[in-house]
Amino acid sequence: MSKKNKSLSETWEPTIKKMGKEELQHIISEQEIYQPEFIEMVKARLDELSSIPDHEVMKDIVKRILEELGCPYEVNEDGDIDFIFQGMEFSILLSENNHYIEIIDFCWKHVKLSDTDEVRRLKYAINKANTISDITTVYFENEEEEYIGVYCTTSILYRPIITNLKDYLRIRLSNFFLAHDLVNTEMILQAEREGIKQEESSPIIHHIDKQAN
After folding, report:
1. Do 93 and 80 meet the contact criterion of CB atoms below 8 Å apart?
2. Three-state secondary-structure class, residue 30
3. 93: β partners
4. Tell me, what DSSP letter sits at residue 135?
5. How far apart are CA 57 and CA 78, in angstroms?
């Protein structure tokens, strides 16, 4: 290998290693516009990836994207990727049985079960948020610790339909915070409306000053 080709190889290799199967296959389909040495490296990488299950390849791509987004992450004992985005804890689940990435945030809100008014407002707010947001908000009851908790979840397809997974992932993660705001805002509005109704329904007591005879 000439010094020039070696230099090009060292330049191309990091870029090629960041590509998924679909990107590599696209390059092969238009190989006439690329240098032969580059195509050889692409084919070699594609052969290497062909022996790895799709979800494992995707897991490597997700790790790389999280690094580019500046998100600290770690792979937990179940093989899921736990990470932090804008101070919030998330987890990404990849299954070998489908082509979707499931994203969830951890319990970001909880209300005491004994506070029946807040529980009612929370459930109403979640139902309303789910009619507006593309992020699904879910509540669950923890009877042992006596609270109702909330988390959000969404799934995204990891196939060629997504041309820029990094930007798409950033947008979807940002939408989690919009879902949080929808729930919190609706709960505040409910409490304010209930307070106004209570004031309107309260009897007006007139105080009559008694004058001495």
Report:
1. yes
2. coil
3. 102
4. S
5. 17
What residue has token string 């000439």?
2
Strand partners, 142: 147
- Provide the token pair at 84: 């932090």
Rounded Cα distance, 101 and 66, in Å: 14
Spatial CB neighbours of 27, under 8 Å, sequence gap ≥ 6: 19, 34, 39, 42
Tokens of residue 98, six digits: 């489908």
CB 175 within 8 A of CB 122: no
Cα–Cα–Cα angle for 37, 40, 44, rounded to 5 degrees: 145
For the chain, give the number of residues: 213
The tens digit of pLDDT for each residue in 191-200 reads 999 887 766 6
- Show the CA angle centred on residue 118, arms to residues 201 and 143, nearest 5°: 140
Angle at CA of residue 144, ends 140 and 150, nearest 5°: 20
pLDDT digits (tens, 9 = 90+) for 112-134: 999 999 999 999 999 999 999 99
What residue type is 195 in one-letter code? G
